[in-house]
Amino acid sequence: MTQAAAAAAATDTTGMGYLETTRSRFLTVWLPLSVFLFVLLFPFYWMVITTLKPNEELLSRDGNPFWVISPTLAHIKKLLFDTAYPDWLWNTMLVSVVSTALSLICSVLAAYAIERLRFRGARYFGMAIFLAYLVPPSILFIPLATMVYTLGLFDTRLALILTYPTFLIPFCTWLLMGYFKTIPRELEECARIDGATRFGAMVRIIFPVAVPGILSAGIFAFTLSWNEFIYALVFMSSAEQKTVPVGVVSELIRGDIFFWGQLMAGALLGSVPVAIVYSFFVEYYVTGLTGSVKG
């Protein structure tokens, strides 16, 4: 072994030596992770303790703001039985699921056509879709509001179901284009040689391989539609038709009075479905982001 090779081997074996001591591990691993977890989880902790605090503790200046002395479920009970929160939750779930499904169908076909079919201008179509995603909703809702009023869809869930794809389809298409690009073309060509049609190869070969990317796009689309605020605020007026982000803010704040217990309970319960979706599909989510299909 030459001196250069020996030096390289010594460098490789000692490259992570700075993590061997307890102090170095604490400063480089555990301390950054602890800070990250604190910043990430503290808002949820604050929502939980505010939800469980009775009004006496919430309004008291002598109590501990970071702990609950006498926990109660009165805020959750009042939110579920004395407000229209169950209707808001159902509206949000229905609109999110349907709009996500419609957007995924259109996005999968569009991304496949742009990346897998060789036609003139495919690159410019992809760039146009990406630029469409960059248009802020605060500009789009003005012409969309005119269309919603003209079609008589104002204050209906259908208004949100039809308008949400305007920002979900560009995003999902752009995300799936990158994933379809990682799928080897040889898979499709072999299926075509064996007698499969273009549609058959797409459905039986490409789509099953692209399931992680499709699920990843679906999770993103579901999250975006679940948290959407501007369209739901403009297109919905009656309390029963509102979604969770709009209903919690507009119905649980009266003038300058904030019902903090119910507000935090609504925010906490509203974040549970998204957390469940991410926990069940986290493996597909990571795979879809990394595009781990290898040729």
What does this structure look like?
The protein has helices at residues 3-13, 22-52, 55-59, 74-82, 85-116, 122-134, 137-150, 157-163, 165-180, 185-193, 198-209, 211-227, 230-235, 244-251, 260-280, 282-290; strands at 253-254, 257-258. It has 295 residues and is an all-alpha fold. A two-stranded antiparallel sheet has the order 1-2. Strand 1 and strand 2 (257-258) form a beta hairpin. Helix 4 (74-82) packs across helix 15 (260-280), helix 5 (85-116) packs parallel to helix 8 and helix 5 crosses helix 9. The mean pLDDT is 83.
Descriptors:
single chain, 295 residues, mainly alpha, two-stranded antiparallel sheet, 16 helices, 2 strands, globular
Secondary structure elements and their pairing?
Elements lengths: L2 H11 L8 H31 L2 H5 L14 H9 L2 H32 L5 H13 L2 H14 L6 H7 L1 H16 L4 H9 L4 H12 L1 H17 L2 H6 L8 H8 L1 E2 L2 E2 L1 H21 L1 H9 L5
Antiparallel strand pairs: 1-2
Mean pLDDT: 83
Number of helices: 16
Strand order in the largest sheet: 1-2
Classification by helices and strands:
mainly alpha
Strand segment count: 2
SS strand fraction: under 5%
| Helix amount | over 70%
Radius of gyration: 25 Å
The major pleated sheet works out as: 2 strands, antiparallel
- Runs in which pLDDT lies below 50 for 5 or more consecutive residues are none
Question: What is the H/E order?
Answer: HHHHHHHHHHHHHHEEHH
The coarse overall form would be globular
The termini sit apart by 35 Å
Task: Describe the structure concisely for a colleague.
The chain has 295 residues and is mainly alpha-helical. The chain has 16 helices and two strands.
